[in-house]
Design brief:
The protein has 66 residues and is mainly α. It is built from one helix and no strands. Helix content is 97%, strand content 0%.
Length: 66
């Protein structure tokens, strides 16, 4: 009986360790995804800024051509 309890305790400890490792991995993946999301948002903002500058330049060119 004591051997069974020791085996069950060891299995439970192993499972807890595996779950803890999985949670650490998921946390790391979430951090990486958030960093990538921020980078994509910054890139999108650059695209918006470039489009806006292009539109402003086009309007200025049109006004000068008149």
């Amino acid at each position: 009986m004591a051997q069974r309890n020791a085996g069950a305790d060891a299995a439970a400890a192993l499972q807890r360790d595996e779950v803890a490792a999985s949670l650490r991995d998921l946390s790391s993946m979430a951090d990486e995804a958030q960093a990538e999301s921020h980078a994509m948002q910054a890139a999108l903002q650059q695209v918006v800024d470039i489009r806006q500058a292009t539109d402003e330049n086009s309007r200025a060119s049109t006004q000068l051509a008149r």
